[in-house]
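Me: Here is a favour to ask of a fellow structure person. Could you put it straight underneath, so I can go through it closely?

Assistant:
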Amino acid sequence: MASITPLPPSHWQLANLPPEILVRVASFLTTPELGALRRSCKEIEMKLFVDFAREFFTKRQFLIEHESLEALVGISRHPGLASRLREVLIDSSHFSLTPEIRCSRTKNGYVNRDVLLQTGLARDMLAEVFSNLPNLKTVGLRDYDGYGRIRDGPYAKWRSWGWSLFSENYVVDRRPHALLFPMLLSALTQANARPSNIEVFTKKSSKLQPESFLLPRNTSISAVLADLKTLMLDIPTDEISDTDDNPSFACVDVEDTPLRLFLHRTTQLQSLRLNFLPYINHADHPRRPRTRHQRGWRIVDWLGRPISVAAKSAPLTDSPTPPVHLPFLTSLELGKTMVTTADLVRTLAKFDLQSFSLHRICLDNPRPDSIAQDCWAQFLSQLSTSLSPSCRIRKIMIRQPSQGPYRWRVRGIHNGTSVVRFVPEGTNAANKAKAEKLCEIAFDSLYTGRTIHEWLRDMSGLTYIQWPLGHPVRVRLGLDMTTPEDAEEDEDGGGNDSDA
């Protein structure tokens, strides 16, 4: 039997595989395994570098900790990675100072987070980073880790660089981000960087505070804001305090002015997203005017105010702040606030939008509970007639809409809101049951033969309100066993708040 001649090593070595096959093989490896493969051979490292850099260094998240920022500075100085880093995210989480961390930092010459912030060292390090990144597009602030790290399993997260150094002492910072946001803007100004996107996403900690937007006037920060194309912010609503019961208390405009002036500087803005903390249930505070406790309500009202000739020439130092123009705005996203139908329609019709999104918006119901109406049907109908015939809106997304608040008495006082569903397939029992699972509706001109006006008009007739249990409307329709007299007791003024 003839002997088999072995193939030369060059035929089976990984280094001789075509780059696309080698990349495919590497895609099945975990991150530690990929690192071992890259270190095995210089030729393999070179073939994998482009895809490796695209996966791990296009978007990176860092802590305001000395070790993490030093790594970011090193990446920005790397000749092959600096040009690939396009998104820099700052995580507000931090390490709790334990004896172990203090000892490690003393040996390595690192300082703690408070020293970084109070001495300006964090800003200087970020300024160096931003000045070294020629393709920087997005700067963000967040307080959570992102999913999608498929290489390491379905539940693996993209964590901030450095979290594993002291992972047992890695905690979420629930303090307000009042300092971090202006520090990022100051670092961008110092670096003369001009990212097109600024994003603030917060899930666990406090949102941006009014003082976060208090920036020096007539500085180069205005140049950074003027070049923005996309702005996404998470903003808190107002806290109820005893001073709000005083009719002469007029500081709400003072609280909103920093954000309004900030938006005035974003003259080239094309996409704006404003998320507010979940609206306050004003049924719990019936003696207090609703609008005074909803920053989201007031900001939406202000955004929709028309631009008059006097407003265009009015200085921004005037009080109240003149309405904002935003001539290039094409996308508007609003979330997690209560507004009136009129304010929302006016805001959406003011700008030359191509798309808008409404997420967890609650429309205020101005009428008594016993004759409550479908506010979302009214909103869609009014918007269809308010938009100009030349309207350019091509995409709409409405998620988890509701209306309220309501206050009624059924064996006690109940407060709440009503969830609104859409039944585009009809209003019979089967379709209503199907609508219980639908939390959103969407419009895309590419996939429908209707105009935006026709779609809005059609959807206004396909809303379905899930009235809360015990609500007078449910009683009137025979959906509850409660008697109408019990349900309408609160409408007639019976009882008192002490029964709640």
In short: The two ends are 96 Å apart (CA to CA). Residues 42-57 form the longest helix (16 residues).
